[in-house]
């Protein structure tokens, strides 16, 4: 059995790369694993050799000490890998397949999964609906910032790339540019800058990808204001528009600015959103609703996501540097290369 190294949370501001257990077809006790999940048999799982696994802003909430994540938690929920082993109940996923892994862990059997709401699966987290790899209060499933990772319900969860060689050529391809406009909230209210760009201070739709560690605008840009983004979205989105809120909000934040925020209670201008008849969607993104279409769009050059996020590949051993620089505001999406396969593709 090969060894396995992974990125481990060791307390506020500290991550380390160390030896972790090679995946098994049974969920073992460990940091963050719910007692009801210990010993859970996983004959439906597959083991992946990780090709790419990303550092996400959601991971930073834990690393900053702003959640109740336990020390020793293996991080990482954005994973692409090659199947190296399958459990006896896996029928369609094969060894050698190159696959994308939704960060939602879902069973494919419960009512929510069958309705396409894979972000709130009822069967994978004993605490509450919804689960993810390497994340606090998500049932204790081991994270994917590692050389090898395990994916339960593999036939359901894994998205196979139709052409492995072509997909490897596309992973972190930064050759194409794209068009977008940006605003700098440190310079003042976004509404004024949007009007300068569009000729109107409102947009049709808006997305909060920041979450509960939001800061203020202008002279308050260095001050934590956890409801800022939500209130700004309601302000700049036109009547009848829509708000998407995938940015993370938690029920327990020990480092919050006040007692209410520590419980996830924020001063939101909900009356404004109601008056403008906004459509609001929040929670974990139901990845499996979109991932196949997105994969095809990437493979056929209709979108260039790697370029959009300035994807930058680094070895697994440099993960602590990636976390540190990302936290300091580096304009990169750090992609970890645990097995040196991205260099091979380049």
UniProtKB/TrEMBL annotation:
Pfam families, alphabetized: ADH_N
InterPro entries per record: ADH-like_N, ADH_Zn_CS, GroES-like_sf, NAD(P)-bd_dom_sf
Source species: Nonomuraea antimicrobica
Domain annotation Alcohol dehydrogenase-like N-terminal: ranges: 43-162
Cofactors: Zn(2+)
Keywords, comma-separated and alphabetical: Metal-binding, NAD, Oxidoreductase, Zinc
Entry's family note: Belongs to the zinc-containing alcohol dehydrogenase family.
UniProt name for this protein: Formaldehyde dehydrogenase, glutathione-independent
Keyword Metal-binding: yes
Lineage top rank: taxon: Bacteria
PROSITE patterns in the cross-refs: ADH_ZINC (PS00059)
PANTHER family for the chain: GLUTATHIONE-INDEPENDENT FORMALDEHYDE DEHYDROGENASE, ZINC-TYPE ALCOHOL DEHYDROGENASE-LIKE
